[in-house]
Amino acid sequence: MSDWLRHIFEGRPWWMNVLLAFCAYMAFFYMPWDLFWKPVAEDKEVWFGILFSGWGAKLVAIPHWFVYGAATYGFRRMRPWMCTWGAAYIAQISFGMLVWNINQLGGLTGVVVGVVTAAPFAGLAFVFWNAQEHFCADRVPLLERYGEWGLVTGASAGIGAEFARALARDGMSLVLVARREERLRELADQIEKEHSVATRVVAVDLAEADGADRVAEAVADLEISVLVNNAGFGYAGRFDKLELDRLRAQVQLNCLAPTVLTHRLLPGMRERGRGAVIFTGSVAGRQPLPLHGVYSASKAFALFLGEALWVELRGEGIDVLVLEPGSTETEFQAVAGEITHPGESAADVVDVAIDTLGHQPSVVSGWWNWLRANLVTRLLPRDLVASVAKDVIERQTPDAMR
To answer: Domain ends where: 77, 104, 135?
Structure first.
């Protein structure tokens, strides 16, 4: 618990931590009580110095709840919009204090008292406005944060190829791992020309039992600083209709290969005192997914492993992140045997991972995916969630495989 609290409050000034704690109290305790338990006759809310009572107060309490919830999230994740949005909201409180006292006390007394009570909030709004360096600090390049070499599995296409390009843009040399050597060499040539970094191609099928060990041996002479466990595939259809050998390969590639590679490469990162491990998971790992059962189970494996390692390695200079995209515009749908459907771009998904790395243990790409992965799965019964998921996946699965 102490490590968790230390993580919550580190990296920001004390006065921001005070505001974070206050906003969290308001969002999770006071506002729910105010909305759902406080008698209507006793309820009062103030906006811009105007007093609302009764049901009017209940109505305007809803945006108040949203404000405190958004502020809690904004402080917790230090989102750039907080420096302007937070300053504007506090300025509104300052204005409201002035208007309230003028209306309540009247005359010169109201003005004086209004100015005196509004001044501290105006000062806080000014401090907030000038705290942009805390919310909008430039991201430190991965080369400077972690070291020279990154390794990306499943780098021949899609999210893996975009990870390779992102790491190269930050100055990292790259080991590119996948089955298709020709594609890897094309990507390696492109990266070397555009970013002037070194590359190494390792053509290995990680679905083979010794694949991960062969990759580790092929890079034994390099100091791998960033490991991206991205290789994986889906396999859509009714469980008993799926080929057993391909299911074995799926578990090997999605679960065993990242476990072995991480275990082989992590000691070097710990010895150097810095590094990063990224797992490409999926929102499918947040819930049971009928017609994609083994895939969703494998991504739950990645999620739990990654978040556990994030806790184990905190304080050792090693960042761990599980990236959880939803449908993405890659080869995944064709390989999985799905009917084509829209998705995010792979580049956008990778941008989310790079921006989040070092700040939290896992991240869902896209707000709709976040709502689906969190609110729906936490608020609804699991059997209902699984049933709804089956309806969705059925529309993406050919009739012959249902």
So the answer is: 135
What does the pLDDT look like over 55-92, one tens digit per residue? Answer: 988 898 999 899 999 999 988 888 888 888 888 888 98
| Strand 224-229 to 149-153 pairing | parallel
Assess whether 295 carries a catalytic annotation: yes
Mean pLDDT, the chain, rounded, equals 91
pLDDT of residue 139: 80
Place of tokens 């506090």: 90
Helices (H), 78-180: 82-105, 107-129, 132-135, 142-146, 158-169
Catalytic residue among 68, 146, 235, 295: 295
Average pLDDT over residues 232-253: 94
pLDDT classification of 133: cutoffs 50, 70, 90 = confident
- Cβ(294)–Cβ(250) under 8 Å? yes
Domain encompassing residue 117: 2-135
Predicted confidence (pLDDT) per residue in 85-100, tens digit: 888 888 988 898 888 8
Are 160 and 212 part of one and the same domain? Answer: yes
**For residues 201-239, b (16+ Cβ closer than 10 Å) or e, as one string?**
bbbbbbbeeebbeebbebbeebebbbbbbbbbbbbbbee
- Token pair for 104: 């309540």
DSSP string, 130-150: T-HHHHSPPPPPHHHHH-SEE
What pLDDT is recorded for position 201? 97
Of all residues in the chain, what percent carry a pLDDT higher than 70? 100
Q: How many CA atoms lie within 13 A of 400 on its CB side?
A: 4
Q: Which CATH number does the domain housing residue 227 bear?
A: 3.40.50.720
Residue 51, classed as helix, strand or coil, is: strand
CB 171 within 8 A of CB 163: no
Confidence of residue 391 (pLDDT cuts 50, 70, 90): confident
For residue 283, give the nearest of 266, 274, 295, 265 by alpha carbon: 295
Using the 3D structure, point to which of 102, 135, 168 is the last residue of a domain.
135
Query: What tokens does 249 get?
Result: 């390969």
